[in-house]
Amino acid sequence: MGREIHDIFVIGGGINGCGIARDAVGRGYSVALAEMNDFASGTSSGATKLIHGGLRYLEHYEFRLVRESLMEREILWAMAPHIIWPLRFVLPYHKGGIRPAWLIRLGLFLYDHLGGRKLLPPTSVLDMRRDPAGKPLKALFAKAFEYSDGWVDDARMVVLNARDAADKGATIMPRTKVVSARREKGLWHIETTDTVTGRNDSHQARMLVNAAGPWVDHVIRSAFGQNEAHHVRLVQGSHIVVKKKFDDVRAYFFQNPDNRIIFAIPYEGDFTLIGTTDRDYTADPKDVRISEEETVYLCNAASEYFKEPVKPEDIVWTYSAVRPLYDDGASKAQEATRDYVLKLEGEGAAPLLNVFGGKLTTYRRLSEHALEKIGAAIGVKGAPWTAKSHLPGGDFPVRGYEAQVDKLKRRYQFLADQHARRLVRRYGTRAEALLGDARGIDDLGRLFGGDLYEAEVTYLVKQEWARHAEDVLWRRTKDGLRLSKEQAQSLEEYMAAMPAMAG
């Protein structure tokens, strides 16, 4: 037919789909990926944005998941030191609390020693009457435990995996919906529709990977015609962002009377991120929004700890997402496994791999395990390679962020300090490609608000598939926190006149 036959066709442009595509193309497979919306527009941009072992998962005896997650923290940090960095967490304690001190100590001992910690500092005990971390909290908390985990710009991690996959030769198709997939003569025949232009297209592949996240069962039912697909339990998690509640660079881990936990995390310099909730969700994932009940819950839970209460009127932004957890029959949403499950179907001609569950921290290992199954199904190509790799812009030393900021400021002396820091946090070594030959701030073009200039928007359109203001303001950056509605609308009008150029 003259049409390219891909080795692998991936459905889903979240962290798992993009991670699998990147790993596969790096091993020599020919890969295509279709995402019906923008990258990370579902679950992968709605996380608590942590690279963490999952301290609370120990209570549910998920030792394999926690060990794998702990081992991944420093691997991912080294892969992308621009968008991932260490974060210390303060866990306040008082007598008569939800969990006894000995249980917390045991959990943190396991956390420190289950595997992988080389650069991150170990657990310590704080006197909250003297430590600055006690200042914003109620006097009830005289003691706290402090431990290490990491922070990630989740949506950027997704798009950088997509960018690297494309750089290595993968065909990456955002805003492309798979409308049908059928097996015929040993191949998958996939029909897609471009949701922007309406163009229909056909593709062929030796193997199909369904990594559609919350829509994984929907894809099985609609694209494959299997009406009895019920593999995932959809769990809604919501977050609120308020003006900065504390000056400390550390985050807080709060235990609630209902045995659930929330985090309060320094966010984007001027804000505090509070979340998450856990509740079952049955509607369409695209319609997920924070409920009034969740808003009240998060405000009340944080107010149990902070001297200054958190009120609904303090909220400057909220976001919600649906986690596609593998349905293991757990009775409570917060008890459902966070581990991932890979199901291979049709091990002969035209196999299918369905991906259920997973989390940001384990995406690289999930991808490796997926490639093991892909290799067994259609033949092995290449060896595992991502553990020593860098995501685009992350090719500098793991502790080299400050040096990278200094380097950028020396070359572009017109940059304000915060502007330079934000550019390195988003783009790492690729910030210089964005700024190009600029010799003054005026060379960056139109200012849309905050420190978002035309040069950055152009880069995001050309290199990272941004098409709308929302893509730029809430996924590629978080400048939506700093731009007014009028400024955001002005950006949308500007971008509407630009051609879509990424490839």
UniProtKB/TrEMBL annotation:
Reaction(s) the record says it catalyses: a quinone + sn-glycerol 3-phosphate = dihydroxyacetone phosphate + a quinol
Family: Belongs to the FAD-dependent glycerol-3-phosphate dehydrogenase family.
Domain Alpha-glycerophosphate oxidase C-terminal: 386-498
Cofactor(s) needed by this chain: FAD
Pfam families for this protein: DAO, DAO_C
Entry's EC annotation: 1.1.5.3
InterPro entries registered for this protein in UniProt: DAO_C, DAO_C_sf, FAD-dep_OxRdtase, FAD/NAD-bd_sf, G3P_DH_FAD-dep
SUPFAM superfamilies: FAD/NAD(P)-binding domain
Domain FAD dependent oxidoreductase: 7-363
Species this chain originates from: Rhizobium anhuiense
Keyword terms: FAD, Flavoprotein, Oxidoreductase
Protein name, as recorded: Glycerol-3-phosphate dehydrogenase
